[in-house]
Every structure is written in C-alpha cells, then in structure tokens.
Amino acid sequence: MKAIQKTEPKPGAVYHEIPDPTITDSELLVKIGAAAFCKSDVDVYEWAPSVATANYELPFTMGHEYCGEVMEVGKSVRGFRKGDHVAGETHVPCGHCYTCRTGNPHICGNNMGIVGRSVHGSFAGYMILVFSWVPVTICSNSCQISDRLFEGILSSLRTSKKQSKTRFFR
C-alpha cells in the first residue's frame, strides 16, 4: 500500500510503497476513509525542534486525524466488528491507569505515544489500532468534523462537570 512516511530526521516526507499491515489478537485493522492534515503534521514534515527533540523512531507513517472502517478484528478484541466505522484519537494511552479507567485516556500520565509519530498513522490505506486505545465508534458521515467536535464537547463537559451529570461517550 502507499503511505506518507517520515524516513529521515530532516525536512520532508516520502510517499512510497510499504507492506500491508497485519494485526495481532489485540488489534483492529482499519481501512482509512479520510484523513485530515493539521499543524502538527506540518511540524513533522518540517522537522520542527519539538519533533526533532522527541527522538521518534524512523521511519513512521504520518497522520493522526482520521476515520475509517474496521476490516479485521483481533481474537481478543471485544465491542467491535468488521464494518464498524471509527474515528481517531491522537494519543496512545496505557488503558490501565486510573486516568484511563475513569474515561480520560487523552490525558494518560503514562503517555504511551502519539499516533502518526510513535506508532504508524493514518496517511496510508490501512492502519492498525491497538484495542486498549480504540476510539469511539461513530457514523462515517460525521468523520470530517469528529476531532474538533469531540474536543468542543469534552471541553464543555469539563467546565460544566460540577453543574451537570452529563456523561461523555463511553
């Protein structure tokens, strides 16, 4: 499959052929339906100091804002099936700490990485999602605005947490 990858620690990126991914028992294979390009992708492309000093292992497939369709489900994955539509989460949480278990994986103190930097991202035909950090399943028609929409909803819920008993999508 074709992918946009960061292959060298300098400005630029490469669009080339890479092997199709294969999943383990705890992963999902997602066919990318749409991927967005944001400022942090520009930072990776330009090899900004914040990226250069992070010591990411090269090469990696760029991209972290995406939606797609589940094509394959690992044997130990529960709650997802082939054909489900998913939208991406940038952060790679541990899935086990108190913060993750209480519905806040985006601020996991163990920060296991960032999609499109420390794990292969969405600027490819397919990507792998590890079950412990799989995003919310949503309708594919909403994918284009999902990241900004969820950020707004989450911010609103955090500010009104003491005034409301509303729960975020879990």
Which class in CATH terms?
Answer: Alpha Beta
> If classified by CATH, what would the architecture be?
Alpha-Beta Complex
Biggest sheet record? 4 strands, antiparallel
| Percent of residues in beta strands | 15-25%
Measured distance between first and last alpha carbons: 33 Å
Continuous helix count: 4
Instruction: Round the Cα radius of gyration to an integer and report it.
Output: 16 Å
Element-by-element helix/strand order: EEEHHEEEHEH
Rounded mean pLDDT is 81
Q: What is the SS-derived class? A: alpha+beta
User: How many strand elements?
Assistant: 7
In CATH, the topology is named: Quinone Oxidoreductase, Chain A, domain 1
CATH homologous superfamily placement: Medium-chain alcohol dehydrogenases, catalytic domain
The proportion of residues forming helix, as a percent range, comes to: 10-25%
Describe the secondary-structure layout:
Elements lengths: L1 E5 L7 E4 L9 E10 L2 H8 L2 H4 L7 E2 L3 E9 L11 E3 L10 H4 L24 E5 L15 H14 L11
Antiparallel strand pairs: 1-2, 1-4, 3-5, 3-7, 5-6
